[in-house]
Specification:
By secondary structure, the chain is α/β, with parallel strands linked by helices. It has one domain: 3-Layer(aba) Sandwich (Rossmann fold). Helix content is 48%, strand content 16%. It has an 8-stranded mixed β-sheet, with helices on both faces. Helix 7 links the parallel strand 5 (164-169) and strand 6. It is globular.
Length: 313
């Protein structure tokens, strides 16, 4: 065998290993879970944890409360789904956007009920590839922000919604922030971001210690091949710097998924009117569960300031 064959074989082994690792990482981090929604609900019912049971109670409430199933065709051809709770023709609307491998009833357990009690109609969105919507892979807010903008358009045209608050948790919060960086209609009055990351690329760097930069680039290449989407544009810092939408930032100081410091970075970068709340002792996505009274006491007046009495930004 010629010497150069040995060189090619020696080079091909690390390359093939990198490609295989990138494919595995992509499947683990980007693949959705919509096909598992029944298992998730049943698993939650068996979990004795009080917080989980609060979320299950919200799921049952959402199923029983009068609502309409809505569908939307995404710009890349997926069927997206949401549940619309008109709440007796309420004039104020909250669009709630859940996070990665989650669902509205999980991320808005308890919050859904007090939004209704506070006089808000609610659109509970299932993000692409998650819970009730179609798709195989998420894009960490890049395409999801366009989905959210299209849901806003549907609410305006079909129901005349003109006082809308955007609310998101985790990847849902990033989706909301990325949307606020776009030119939104005047119907969108404010936004609430609960434990958003600053940038998807930074989140992956934090959460996957030891990744080489080339590994992240390979995973991005897989994303481009699978969804024709790079995850690098999921940059919430740039979005909030352009935003004119009043935004409330919430984060738990014991978050082990999205570092707590990211809220401060987002808050400082935001060019719009803004407020922030630190929930002490709260882990990822648990701000309301840990301090429901404090959450309501700060966020409800913020929503009312912008969504009541036809007030414009």
């Amino acid at each position: 065998m010629k010497w150069y064959w040995y060189v090619l074989i020696a080079l091909s082994l690390p390359v093939s290993t990198l490609i295989s690792a990138s494919l595995c990482i992509y499947e683990k981090v980007f693949r959705g879970n919509s096909e598992q929604r029944g298992e998730i609900i049943e698993g939650a019912r068996r979990d004795p944890d009080p917080t989980v049971q609060m979320r299950v109670a919200t799921y049952d409430h959402m199923q029983a409360y009068p609502h309409e199933r809505l569908e939307l065709r995404s710009r890349d051809g997926l069927t997206l789904r949401a549940n619309w709770y008109p709440n007796g023709g309420a004039k104020k609307t909250a669009i709630v956007v859940h996070g990665w491998r989650s669902a509205p009833w999980w991320d808005y357990g308890g919050v859904f009920e007090w939004l209704l009690e506070s006089g808000y109609a609610v659109l509970a969105v299932s993000q692409r590839a998650l819970f009730e919507s179609d798709g195989k892979y998420v894009t960490y807010g890049v395409r999801e922000k366009d989905d959210l903008i299209d849901w806003i358009d549907l609410l305006e045209k079909r129901f005349g919604a003109d006082r809308i608050a955007l609310m998101g948790v985790s990847m849902g919060a990033a989706t909301v922030l990325l949307a606020t960086g776009e030119k939104l209609p005047a119907s969108v009055r404010c936004a609430v971001s609960d434990c958003s990351y600053t940038k998807a690329s930074e989140l992956f760097r934090e959460g996957a210690k030891g990744w080489l930069p080339v590994s992240r680039l390979c995973v991005d290449l897989v994303s481009r091949l699978k969804t024709r989407t790079s995850y690098f544009p999921a940059n919430c810092l740039k979005a909030v710097a352009r935003s004119v939408t009043p935004t409330f930032f919430v984060h738990g100081d014991e978050d082990e998924v999205v570092p707590y410091r990211m809220m401060d970075e987002l808050y400082r970068a935001c060019s719009a009117q803004k407020e922030a709340l630190t929930v002490h002792g709260a882990k990822h996505g648990e701000a309301f569960a840990v301090d429901p009274d404090g959450y309501r006491a700060r966020i409800l007046p913020f929503l009312e300031r912008y969504c009541s009495d036809g007030k414009q930004i």
